[in-house]
Amino acid sequence: MDNWVPNPRARPYIPKRKLYGTAGSKLREYSSRRCISKIFQGGLILVLIVTVVINITFLLDTSKKLQPDPQITENNYQKFKDGLSQELEQHNKMKSLKATIEVISSKELVSITVDGTAVLEDEGFDTNRGVHVVVLNQATGSVMAKRIFDTYNQHEDEAMVLFLKMISDGRIIIFTIKDEGTFQLKSTARQYLASMGSEYITNINWRDTWAFVAIKGGKKIGEAHNKSPSLSSWGEKSVLTVHIKLSPKSESRCNWPDNESNRRREVFCSKVEGYGNVCSCTDPSPISFSPQKLENNKISDIPIAVIASNRPHYLYRMLGTLLSVPGANPQLVTVFIDGYFEEPLEVTKLWGIKGIQHTPMGIKNARISQHYKTSLTATFNLHPKADYAIVIEEDLDVSPDFFNYFSQTKHLLDEDSSLYCISAWNDQGYEHSCKNESLLYRVETMPGLGWLLRRKLYKDELEPKWPTPDKQWDWDMWMRNNFIRKDRECIIPDVSRTYHFGSKGLNMNPYFQEIYFKKHSIVAKPDVKLKDLDRMKQKEYEGVINELIKSGEVLSENHNPCDDSFIPNTKDKTYLLYISMKSPTDYTTWKILAKCFHIWDLDVRGFHKSMWRLFLKENHILIIGVPASPYS
Ligand SMILES: *[C@@H]1O[C@H](CO)[C@@H](O)[C@H](O)[C@H]1NC(C)=O
Ligand SMILES: *[C@@H]1O[C@H](CO)[C@@H](O)[C@H](O)[C@H]1NC(C)=O
Prior knowledge:
Number of helices: 17
Structural class: alpha/beta
Keywords: Disulfide bond, Glycosyltransferase, Golgi apparatus, Lectin, Manganese, Membrane, Metal-binding, Phosphoprotein, Signal-anchor, Transferase, Transmembrane, Transmembrane helix
Strand content: 15-25%
Protein name: Protein O-linked-mannose beta-1,2-N-acetylglucosaminyltransferase
Membrane topology: Single-pass type II membrane protein
Shape: globular
Bound molecules: 2-acetamido-2-deoxy-beta-D-glucopyranose
CATH class of the largest domain: Alpha Beta
Number of domains: 3
GO biological process, one term: protein O-linked glycosylation via N-acetyl-galactosamine
Distance between the termini: 58 Å
Radius of gyration: 32 Å
Catalytic activity: 3-O-(alpha-D-mannosyl)-L-threonyl-[protein] + UDP-N-acetyl-alpha-D-glucosamine = 3-O-(N-acetyl-beta-D-glucosaminyl-(1->2)-alpha-D-mannosyl)-L-threonyl-[protein] + UDP + H(+)
């Protein structure tokens, strides 16, 4: 993130005159009293020397204090605080509390300058269309947030309002449209902007240009608008110049009680914006937790690798949940950031955990896959004694029993060589298709989305064979391939222990989130005791399935499985559904069924020996491929 600070190291005010004046008057005093004894003269000279020495010491000390801090960490927080105050005071004096902001809105270029320094400059048609928003600190003029909302597209206006609501009162907010920003700018968003003081917002339409500066929670500073003359052309460039009075620093900061977590908060809130309550002066949300300890914790020394890119708001939410659940230990969590992005790193500092940025390699899916490899290698290097690592992405919530779940299941990976992962996620675990929180499955498709990885598997098998940066492979698809999997399986829960909330990313969009992830279940209790753990090993599990088949009732093939009446309105019964499956990779019938059942149908997941398990209408359903499955 760009940070613009006007004249950041302004020279400090040093009271030279007064100090030298004191010494000078002593000299005059000396020359006016000629008849005083030599001893007294000697005394005066001594006083003079002492004064000069004290002055020099004072000057040296002052200039030392004013050295710029190389890095603001928790340890030199006090220095940071002093430095900040001095900077702000100095700045305010020099600029007499004023800044000039110039904003341009046009078809191909948007720009914002503050006192002649560009804080936004985006030129070129076909890139970054929409409303550009920049948030400035009202005391320093430094940039605290920058966002683009492509309000030509649906729902971006809602995201913009959400973002605006998260900004602290008093901040300077600047808006400018590039190309087109009104097609899906609905009335709720327009009303919100009108409430911020915009006069033109209700009249802004297709391909108009618009620039607007306002104070959050306060008044409008300035606005410019040009209408587009016809559907096929753009409005003339809007240029807006405003002079803004900067606030005294005391008004731009909060007086939180001084303690360790509030220090982190203060550093964070002085740099970035758009995080809502965490920076509230009156009622800040907590950033330190003392989560309950896990009883019989089997994973107390297992590191947690959080895989992150540049979605700092996701990371903020994810870490807030993770660190508050029972068994969480911030010291074991490391966030790996794919690139030198500042804001995600600030988020890790806010939560008081380790953040590591590294250089991206490859593009698109290859980049993600390289990011995983680098992060996993680094995790095992950072924790040389750890035999396991928990891997989790930045766009997931975790359940209150997330650590408890892994603590109860970890031993299975040690004891059963036919397993190669334990995941917190069930691809078929929708609200209507799962039910039993203490039930586990074995599946051949590794789901990821919060999983336990053994060092041995990584070091001996995965790391040496990991796809190179030139391969556009999804790392998880690669891991599911039998060339890597070698007929091994993963343990998953019936009800997931993670929830996917992210709707933006390389392979994600809001539509996809709505259809495939929004209705996923997640466990809400901290202390679920998993059942039948001793029956999860290969042979025993096959026994469990055979028992279920023996006790199950076959569903009639004469009904259309897409009809709601296909599954009887019974409770706690076991039903068997035999479907056509000519070979273990013949998924034709399954795909139709998955669509009818409104479960994951984009590819085929969650099976064990050509058999799927799920719950529908309170009943346990086993879907068995014939003749591919050994259970048929
Ligand atoms: C710091 O002070 C806040 C009140 O502002 C309090 O809620 C929090 O628990 C304190 N944190 C620590 C670590 O003492
Ligand atoms: C959930 O599954 C476990 C393991 O099969 C079983 O023991 C338990 O009775 C089930 N609970 C419910 C409520 O069906």
